[in-house]
Design brief:
alpha/beta, 8-stranded parallel barrel, elongated, binds flavin-adenine dinucleotide
């Protein structure tokens, strides 16, 4: 068949379907849902759509009528300017309480429930059974999907497994006794399973993470295997749903691994959803075919869908500067659907096709190709979603086609996320159903071959915003020359995408290569030369304390003085080096980091026990600091002129002199490099002292500086014991500036001694200090608990709580306290405590024995002041390394030590607050003001928290750690810091002195023209 013939057949099928459809009545998106005035309105009004869907999303969490009407008012109020006059008026007069408020709340709830029930078949197994019975009377087959909250605890994963047992048991018991309906219960060869269930693998393991495909696979398989066994035994079919892109490879791997096991190898009643909006789908299908045909030798079904997470994928890619994994033009997904429909139909003996689409063109195309390839029409089927496109289902059934309905069931609360996805899909401009039924686009246009749309190709906003991305791979293509077009431009370095096998392989290789280099010696470096050391300190791996990473030469007081002298000697020439050259030097350092990115991450994993992702982020942040400060310094380089006739005035900056940089171990590269490169690009020379615990990473940084062309003396590497050389450095009369990050106690001591100006010292030292935090996450009564629990646990236990930004207090408002606490406790128990080298590690060791013992003392004190809710057992790991199990205290009094003092370990205090004002009072009631977070879905409460939660970095509805250079300049006030924020526009000014030069240009009444 020629392409033209095929297209005629496609159109013929399409016209036939349209001819049988009634497009005049209430539109067939669902049972008349577009009749709903407000829903119709959202289609023309994106701002209202966002607000309305947000309201729908949080509605199930609201129990009090006053709360419901308040939220409705707040959400619609935010979109007020976009509303038509009558709706604006309505918002204004929305009742706040009383009978009107109650009625409004009841109406909102019942409407949302009605809307949800259009897409969700029931809330329990019996309702699901009733729903599928109704479907079968219309000759519609089904696949049942279990809606649930995000699985963030192992207890929840167990519960999901049990629900699947109940579902399969309940369905098979009933349905298999019903009379056969040959149209849906048979294909061309015989009976096919009537009971069909769909599973989402991430629901079966709380720590589902593609960074660890093996561990994830093992855990998912342990829960899924019995489900599959039961399905096989009872004659049910199981389909694996496909979720977000980052889960795809792991999902495919688990599918292939499990179904290759002897028990399931010859079982044909299994399938998997494949998303064609992904650009790499063809390759996945080829691999699946090869496996089914040549390895497994038994067919599997493929449910071909376009994909339900388009918005999410594009946002995540743009946010991370990763390549967009999906096509960015709708017609491209349509074309791919057609291409891959052909692929499936060509290989239907091994990949049994199920076309999941409501698009009449896509459906007609599959029919025409099947006809061309002589695929029996009962060998493949069409699948559609419950509550959508009902008339199309009727037409296809009347044409004798087998249609299966994806039928979700579950509680309303978790169901809202599904509902919002459906609403978004249906109201999207590109939706076939919207175009065909709500907007009356002509049949000709709707049935047009999607490849004809290619002439309208235009770069989408996402393509534009990601044009500079680095193929998703850390260190892959950023190699110099990038900034020649614009020296002041900055873009964050993309983090490594560990869902990609290449990234994982590079990390593993780096860990092996670095391990082979253990035990080397790292002496101090002055004037670019190693200097002799008589005192050596072993740097040990906190995950395995028997492993010595390297030996660090501890500098003596004499060497400290020599390092300062070297920096003094180098200062004049470095100060006079043009800014452009100093900035170019930082760019080279950044490139050096990129080149050695995986290696540096591996050193960080070993030396300070950071899990993979966090180690990579440490290196990425170091790169960011170099690029950002280089760009910022170029901006500051241009003098500001205020000339008048006869007088020239120039305002400009110059460096302060010798800077001492004293860095902590918790960001062993990023903070050390950040403070050092800021000082350097500003023209200061540096004596750099890394923390004793992270000297090897410090030495690696020094290597990168030298490789980038560091002139001798401009930066001197001085590992040493803080108590021994610290005072020499910080009180040295030739030191102009001290940049310190570390504990409050040491920072205050430095600040005090730096204020002194002994004889012979002709300057007052500048101190920049980043100190601690006792950061709080406020959880409002309407918070999305999935997000709040996960965000709080991530904030508290990321890098074992050893970040000054860590959220160590959760302040919970109102009635959700018990629910929140129960889930936080379970989520904490579910974390994987492991050596940092293990990719599945969610929590590694703490840095050293001293830290471990201090944290344990806090835990003991906490037991006296509050209720110990959970302290995870670290088992044998305690013998291997410095492990402390993540610990949660409940009902913590706000004045308790564990609620006031920085612990720097995996300890979370959960505190009850009466209301939001009370929560704010508690949150602000500590001596620190570094980071904070709030989880809330009330626009007014969020606005209040933004104003009144007085911290340096506030995060709304996300974790309170992980600040990015430029996007979230980092630093606090009160006793959290002296100075302005790292990675922000004011940071470099602290390393500079402003000068003004005024010149009288008038000579004998004659002056040059001023600009
Ligand atoms: C039975 C069934 C099971 C499903 N299971 C899954 C599943 O496991 N995983 C999953 O992700 N989805 C799944 N879906 C959802 C499915 O992906 C969407 O319903 C489907 O994409 C809608 O496509 P359509 O052909 O009906 O509509 P159309 O309107 O023709 O297509 C809409 C789709 O086009 C794509 N799109 C929209 N805008 C753009 C753009 N600018 N550039 C590129 N592409 C764009 C999106 O995928 C969007 O959903 C399932 C659907 C059905 C019917």
């Amino acid at each position: 068949m020629t392409a033209t013939d095929l297209d005629s057949r496609v159109r013929a099928y399409g016209h036939e379907i349209f001819a049988r459809l009634d497009r005049s009545g209430p539109t067939p998106l669902t049972r008349a849902w577009v009749d709903d005035q407000l829903m119709g309105l959202t289609m023309d009004n994106p701002a209202l759509k966002v607000q309305l869907f947000r309201f729908v999303d949080c509605l199930p969490y609201l129990h009090d009528p006053v709360d419901i009407s308040r939220h409705l008012r707040e959400y619609l109020g935010e979109a007020r300017d976009q509303l038509p006059w009558w709706a604006r008026l309505g918002v204004k007069f929305l009742p706040k309480g009383g009978l009107g408020g109650r009625l409004l709340a009841a109406a909102a709830r019942s409407n949302a429930e009605k809307m949800a029930r259009k897409f969700i078949a029931g809330s329990n197994v019996q309702e699901a059974v009733d729903a599928v019975e109704r479907l079968r009377t219309q000759k519609l087959a089904f696949t049942v999907d279990l809606l649930g909250e995000a699985t963030i605890t192992e207890a929840e994963a167990d519960h999901v497994q049990k629900q699947y047992f109940d579902l399969i048991d309940g369905l098979t018991r009933e349905v298999n006794t019903w009379p056969e309906i040959p149209e849906i219960d048979r294909d061309d060869r015989g009976p096919i399973p009537r009971v069909n269930v769909s599973v989402k693998l991430s629901a079966l393991f709380s720590q589902f993470d593609p960074i660890d495909p093996k561990g994830t696979g093992r855990a998912v398989a342990a829960r899924l295997r019995p489900i599959l066994s039961m399905a096989r035994r009872t004659g049910a079919f199981v389909n694996f749903d496909m979720e977000q892109y980052s889960f795809k490879d792991t999902t495919l791997q688990i599918f292939r691994d499990l179904l290759s096991e002897p028990e399931f190898r010859d079982w044909p009643d299994v399938g998997i959803a494949i998303q064609v909006y992904l650009t790499d789908t063809e390759h996945d299908l080829e691999q699946l075919l090869d496996w089914a045909k040549n390895t497994r030798k038994c067919p599997v079904w493929v449910r071909l869908v376009k994909g339900a997470y388009w918005d999410y994928e594009t946002v995540i890619a743009a946010q991370n500067h990763w390549p967009v994994p999906v096509f960015t033009e709708k017609w491209q997904s349509d074309v791919n659907f057609e291409r891959l429909s052909r692929f499936l139909l060509t290989n239907y003996a091994w990949l049994v096709p199920a076309f999941g689409s409501h698009n009449i063109r896509s459906i007609s195309h599959a029919m025409a190709v099947a006809e061309e390839l002589k695929v029996p029409s009962r060998r493949y089927e069409f699948q559609m979603l419950y509550g959508m496109a009902d008339p199309i289902k009727d037409v296809l059934t009347s044409l004798g086609r087998r249609i299966r309905i994806y039928t979700p069931y579950g509680q309303l609360l978790p169901g809202m996320a599904y509902l919002v996805r459906r609403l978004l899909e249906n109201t999207s401009n590109d939706s076939f159903l919207r175009q065909g039924f709500a907007e009356g686009v002509s049949e000709e246009v709707l049935l047009r071959n999607p490849s004809e749309s290619s002439f309208v190709i235009r770069p989408s906003s996402f393509e534009k915003s990601t044009m500079h991305s680095v193929n998703g791979q850390a260190g892959s293509s950023h190699t110099g020359g990038r900034m020649t077009t614009d020296e002041t431009r900055f873009q964050n370095e993309p983090l490594a995408d560990f869902s990609r096998a290449e990234s994982r392989a590079k990390m593993r290789a780096a860990l092996d290569a670095v391990k082979a280099q253990f035990g080397r010696s790292y002496p101090p470096v002055i004037d670019n030369k190693p200097v002799a050391s008589s005192h050596w300190l072993d740097s040990v791996n906190p995950s395995h304390t028997k492993e010595v990473i390297g030996r660090a030469g501890m500098a003596t007081v004499d060497q400290a003085n020599a390092a300062v002298a070297s920096a003094v000697k180098a200062f004049d020439s470095w100060r006079d080096t043009p800014v452009a050259e100093r900035a170019a030097f930082l760019r080279k350092v950044a490139d050096g980091f990129r080149t050695r990115r995986w290696e540096l991450s591996a050193w960080i994993v070993y030396e300070v026990g950071k899990p993979w992702r966090e180690a990579d982020a440490d290196v990425a942040e170091a790169i960011d600091f170099c690029d950002y400060y280089a760009a910022e310094m170029r901006k500051l380089d241009a003098p500001q002129h205020r000339d008048v006739p006869g007088e020239g005035n120039a305002y400009f900056y110059e460096p302060r002199g010798v800077a001492v940089v004293i860095a902590p171990w918790n960001f062993p590269l990023a903070i050390l490099a950040g403070m050092t490169t800021a000082a350097l690009v500003a023209g200061n020379t540096v004596v750099m002292k890394p923390a004793e615990q992270s000297t090897v990473v410090g030495a690696k940084f020094m290597e990168v500086l030298i490789e980038a062309g560091l002139p001798p003396g401009v930066c001197n590497f001085l590992p040493g014991v803080g108590e021994e050389i610290g005072p020499t450095l910080t009180t040295h009369p030739d030191v102009a500036l001290i940049a310190f990050t570390g504990s409050l106690k040491v920072a205050l001591a430095i600040n005090e001694s730096a204020a002194k100006t002994p004889g012979g010292q002709n300057l007052v030292k500048k101190v920049i200090a980043e100190m601690g935090g006792k950061n709080a996450v406020i959880v409002d009564s309407d918070a999305d608990l999935d997000e709040a629990v996960k965000g709080t646990v991530d904030s508290a236990f990321g890098y074992a709580g050893q970040k000054c930004s860590a959220g160590s207090r959760a302040i919970v408002v109102g009635g959700i306290y018990d629910q929140f606490l129960a889930r936080v406790v379970e989520a904490t128990k579910s974390l994987t405590v492991a050596p940092a080298t293990d990719p599945g590690c969610s929590l590694g060791p703490v840095i050293d024995a001293e830290s471990r013992d201090r944290i344990k003392r806090f835990i003991e004190a906490g037991k006296k002041d509050a209720t110990l809710a959970v302290q995870a057992d670290v088992g044998k790991l305690a013998e291997e390394g410095y492990f402390v199990g993540p610990t949660v205290f409940a009902d913590v009094p706000e004045t308790a030590a564990i609620a006031q003092e920085e612990i720097f370990g995996p300890v979370l205090s959960v505190i009850k607050a009466k209301n939001l004002d009370d929560a704010l009072r508690i949150a602000n009631g500590v001596k620190y003001a570094l980071t904070g977070g709030v989880f809330s879905r009330s626009p007014e409460n969020i606005a209040k928290v933004k104003k009144r939660f007085r911290v340096g970095n506030l995060y709304v509805n996300r974790k309170c750690t992980g600040a990015l250079v430029d996007r979230q300049p980092f630093g606090g006030f009160k006793l959290s810091g002296i100075g302005s924020k790292a990675g922000g526009p004011d940071y470099l000014l602290q390393f500079l002195l402003p000068r003004t030069v005024t010149e009288n240009t008038l000579r004998r009444g004659f002056a040059p023209e001023t600009a």
